[in-house]
Structures are given as C-alpha cells and as structure tokens.
Structure to design on (593 residues):
C-alpha cells in the first residue's frame, strides 16, 4: 500500500512500516486517524541533543570529552526509552581565534581546521560517543543556514548598522561590558586588562559593524524563564541568567570588519563585514536538523548540553536570536561545571592539560566515562586526579560490580552455567522463608531503582543515578555474603532450591544494573548482559521488570544458559607508583560440598 502524497519523517517511517506489517488499513478515514496518531507519536518521540561545537584552535582536552560524554549518555538513555533520538556534535571553525591559530601554525585555515576537527572526531569515535551527525561550520550546508538566518533577522529589522566601541576577548570571542573587565599581570609582569569571568586578555575595539537589537528581547526572555522553571538546569544557572537579564542588556555587535576577520561567513549583501562567530556557531544546531527547510520536527525537541562558561551565549543570545526569527526556544539547556586538575584550572601554560586520548587508553573508555559521570557534579567544579580515578574504578567497577558478576557466575556456585530457577518457598512474599528482612529491603530498593535512575538521568544528575546503582550493588554483594551460598549443599534439595534462588535474585539484580548502566558504560554493560544471556532486544526501558517470579509472573530468563564470555568485567588498575592496589578481601567460595 503506497501513499505517495505523504512525506514521511524518519520516525513516521518506522510507524508506517509497523502499520504495513501489522494492520491493513481499510479506508482513508482509518488511515487519516492513524496518521494523526502517528504524527503525534513521531512528535512526542523525537528527541534532539547537541553538544557545543568545539573550537579547533587546539587539541581536545578532558573538558571537551566531558561535554560529549554527557550528551552521549542522554542520547543513549533516550534511545533506551524508545525515543527517536538525534545527537549532534562537531567543530566551531570560524573566527579570529581560529584565524590566528592557523596563522601561528603556518597553515591555511581550512587545512588547519580539518586536521584538528579530525582529532575531535577520532576521540569521540574511540570513546563511543554515538553522534548521529558531526557538523563543521565550514561546511556549505551550514553557510546556507547562517545566511538564511541572518537574512530573516535583517528582513525583520532586527539588525542595523552601527558603531561598536568596547572590550573584546578574542580567546572567548566575546564582547564585554566595562563592569566585566579587570586588571591582571601577564607572564612578563605587564599590567593587562582581562575578562573577570574567564581571566582572558581583552582589547579595546572600535569599529563600524552590524548590531542586533538584543535589548528589545529582555522582557520576553525573562518571561520565558519565569514560565519555564526547568529551561536552564541546574536551577542555579537559571537564576544566574535571570540575574543577568535584570542588569543592562545592550544591543549586540554581530559582525566584524572583513579587514580584521576574513575567516568566517560574509554578511549577505555586504562583503566588507563578516558574521560574528557566535551567531555563526549557534546556528549549527539548526543546520543539523535541516534548517531552513525541514527542521521543524526535531527543532521542537531540542536539548543543549553546554559548559557553564558559555551559558550567556546559549541562554541569552541564542534564545533572543530564535525569538527574532520566530522559532521555538530550546526545551532544556543542560549546564555542567568544569574540571580542574589537582586543584588547578587546566591550562597549557601550567602544563596540566589532560589528554583524553591518553587517559582513555590508560583507564579504558568506559573507565573514563564512568569516572567523569560518577564524579562530575553539574552544579560545581570537580577535581581530576589519577589516584581518584584509580580508586573509584577499582572499588566500583572491578571489585563491586565485577566481583558480584564473578560470584554469581563462578562454576563452583553455578556449575550448570544457567540463570537458575527462583524458589518462592525459599523467598516467599510473606517473609516466612529463609530470606531475612535485609533481603526484602534489597528487593524493594532494586525494584524502585529504575524510577530513581530515570529521574536523575532526565536531569543529567548522572552522579546521583550512579550513586543509587552503586548502593544497590553493595546491597546485593552483602546479600550473597550474608547467605554464604558456598556453604550450602547442592545434594540437599532444600539447600539447592535456596542456593538457586540466591543466584537467581543476584542475577536479576545484575540484569537491572547492567541495563541501567548502558548509557554510561556501554561496553561493560554489553559484556555483562551478554554474560547473563540477555539478548539485545531485552535491554530497553521496557525490560526493567525486576524479579518477576517473586512478583508472581513468569521470568523469561529462568533456565537460560549463561553467555560464554567469562573474562573479567573490569580489570583492577595499578596505582601511579606501580603497586597494584590491594583488592578488598572477598570471601570466595572455598569449596562446594
Ligand atoms: N565553540 C564554543 C562553543 C560553541 S557552541 C555553539 C566553545 N568551544 S570550546 O571548545 O571552548 O568549549 C566546548 C565545551 O568544552 C564547552 O561546553 C566548555 O564548557 C567545555 N569545557 C572547556 N573546558 C572545560 C573544563 N575544564 N571542564 C569541563 N568542560 C570544559 O566554547
């Protein structure tokens, strides 16, 4: 059955295929109502996540990887929940800063940009950042989008020619008010003017250029934030934006003279001026979803992940531009804080920039991802040290999670290598079996874990989700420890049923942990779930029913053979001084009667 008059979006195509497979639509009336339902379904299920696009003036560092890992985690989470999620990242290649970096490297700008952009792309690919689009602002599709965007603003009278006089930081590509500028000494001891926020040098600039009527949007921006309390998260960043909006909001210079800045998109109709790099860069979010032609479906579901240093650009300039062209505002702007290294800001001059490629090799991709998301608190800055990484990964991934899997799948305890049967007499709901009060508490905690984790993933408080998972893993280890299944006698039928129930419950816990951890540590989760015999289509949000047998329904996993890959889930890491950190004493099954 064909409907050539319909242009089907990606999400709708899926629905259409489903319709073709399952239901034969008898008449046009039925089809129209199905279509209505499907467009609702497609719209509701679309999700669009972006990372900032990264400047290519230098190689990627840990902070960049952090922004990307947060975006990736959210994207994987949404896919798991059945959303049709798109996830974009890429590189920001225009502007004075890049022009100067290319000059310093003695390369033509595009060659220079291509080289560094590839470094970002390779890093993201090697760290399992599952982007669906990688945008470069030097691409033709982007130039078209920027030109169109500019023309709409121009035609609406929101851009005018004026004179800008004030401070500019090339490093931040940002205009500053006098109140945002202070004094500092440069490395040679000379007094210089700097941005109070970033510490970067600023220069006085006076040129004729185009101005955007930012000031007229102040009350609409405030209104947006008042009506949408979760528009900028966490809350403290939304408050910061409201505060800024209550101060002065002058019009914004949105172009530079071509004589100073050649590396960028020329202003349509005025080749003597180049479009301001932030206006150019922000439009990338629209380019990816097909602006100006086909952006609607995805644009209305957009979520930006950004670092706190670029909040003003995303929560004031960008919404004002969008209001100007008449497009919806982003659903949520998720803000994260920064990483310091051994207590100090990461900087080339201090020589403490953490190379994410080197560190991902040292601690594994999943190790790095786990550390960043487990220790990274969006509200406040976090400190990165080798020892902390090693300690955390050894404790939580190697000993706790890996140890739990080892225990439940060790041939000594599980000679048949199966997901054993649950025995409701040994673990009855009326609490009259061999299970004790703490066991029931654990079952209740694991049962509610998906809801807890969902709440924290949704607000990108991933560390809280991981804290909750980690607490449950500890409870399950204690459960095994408490009942010492290695002391039970398999030849005794009662003991055997109880032993199997212990392993069944523990494997069920592991299945829930593995499923919930997929957005954070995709490789480890895959290994864990494969070892448990959980098939790829059994790993979604819908498969998080825990301990079905205890709750009176069938468990599809009961009796299944375990997967064959019995390698360690995560190998313990060595400390910096070479000494292998001592594993916590775990009571291994000495022998089984
Ligand atoms: N090109 C602009 C973004 C344009 S988006 C339309 C930019 N690029 S950046 O390369 O400087 O920064 C990209 C991201 O890296 C930002 O989210 C920034 O906050 C993040 N980080 C840079 N240093 C960081 C840390 N030390 N720690 C955590 N994230 C940090 O800004």
């Amino acid at each position: 059955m064909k409907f050539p008059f319909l242009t089907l979006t990606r999400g709708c195509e899926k629905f259409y295929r489903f319709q073709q497979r399952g239901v034969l639509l008898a008449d046009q009336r039925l089809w129209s109502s199905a279509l209505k339902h499907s467009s609702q379904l497609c719209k509701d299920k679309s999700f669009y996540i972006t990372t900032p696009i990264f400047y290519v003036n230098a190689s990627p560092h840990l902070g960049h990887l952090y922004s990307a890992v947060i975006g990736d985690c959210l994207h994987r989470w949404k896919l798991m929940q059945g959303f049709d999620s798109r996830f974009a990242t890429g590189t920001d290649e225009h502007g004075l800063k890049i022009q100067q970096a290319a000059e310093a490297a003695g390369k033509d700008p595009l060659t220079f940009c291509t080289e560094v952009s590839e470094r970002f792309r390779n890093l993201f690919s090697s760290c399992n950042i599952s982007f669906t689009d990688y945008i470069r602002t030097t691409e033709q599709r982007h130039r078209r989008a920027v030109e169109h965007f500019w023309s709409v603003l121009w035609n609406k009278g929101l851009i005018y020619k004026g004179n800008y006089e004030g401070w500019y930081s090339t490093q931040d590509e940002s205009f500053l008010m006098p109140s945002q500028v202070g004094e500092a000494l440069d490395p040679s001891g000379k007094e210089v003017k700097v941005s109070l926020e970033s510490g970067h040098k600023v220069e006085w600039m006076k040129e004729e250029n185009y101005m955007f009527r930012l000031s007229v949007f102040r009350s609409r921006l405030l209104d947006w934030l008042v009506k949408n309390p979760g528009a900028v998260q966490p809350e403290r960043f939304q408050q910061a934006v409201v505060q800024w909006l209550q101060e002065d909001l002058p019009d914004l210079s949105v172009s530079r003279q071509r004589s100073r800045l050649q590396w960028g998109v020329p202003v349509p109709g005025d080749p003597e001026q180049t479009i301001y790099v932030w206006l150019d860069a922000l439009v990338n979010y629209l380019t990816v979803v097909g602006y100006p032609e086909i952006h609607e479906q995805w644009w209305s579901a957009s979520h930006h992940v950004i670092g706190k240093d670029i909040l003003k650009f995303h929560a004031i300039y960008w919404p004002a531009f969008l209001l100007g062209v008449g497009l919806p505002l982003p659903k949520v702007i998720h803000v994260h804080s920064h990483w310091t290294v051994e207590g100090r800001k990461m900087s080339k001059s201090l020589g403490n920039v953490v190379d994410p490629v080197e560190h991902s090799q040292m601690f594994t991709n999943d190790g790095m991802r786990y550390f960043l998301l487990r220790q990274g608190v969006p509200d406040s800055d976090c400190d990165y040290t080798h020892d902390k990484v090693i300690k955390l990964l050894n404790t939580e991934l190697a000993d706790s999670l890996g140890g739990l899997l080892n225990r439940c799948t060790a041939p000594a305890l599980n000679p048949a290598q199966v997901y054993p049967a649950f025995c409701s007499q040994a673990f009855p709901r009326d609490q009259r079996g061999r299970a004790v009060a703490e066991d029931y508490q654990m079952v209740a905690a694991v049962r509610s874990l998906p809801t807890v984790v969902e709440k924290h993933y949704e607000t990108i408080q991933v560390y809280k989700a991981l804290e909750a998972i980690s607490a449950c893993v500890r409870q399950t280890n204690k459960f095994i420890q408490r009942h010492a299944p290695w002391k039970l006698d398999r030849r005794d039928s009662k003991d055997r049923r109880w032993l199997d129930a212990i392993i069944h419950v523990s494997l069920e816990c592991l299945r829930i942990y593995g499923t919930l951890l997929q957005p954070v540590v995709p490789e480890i989760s895959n290994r864990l779930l494969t070892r448990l015999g959980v098939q790829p289509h059994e790993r979604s949000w819908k498969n998080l029913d825990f301990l079905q047998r205890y709750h009176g329904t069938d468990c599809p996993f009961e009796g299944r053979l375990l997967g064959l890959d019995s390698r360690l889930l995560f190998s313990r890491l060595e400390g910096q001084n070479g000494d292998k950190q001592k594993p916590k004493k775990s009571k291994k099954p000495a022998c089984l009667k």
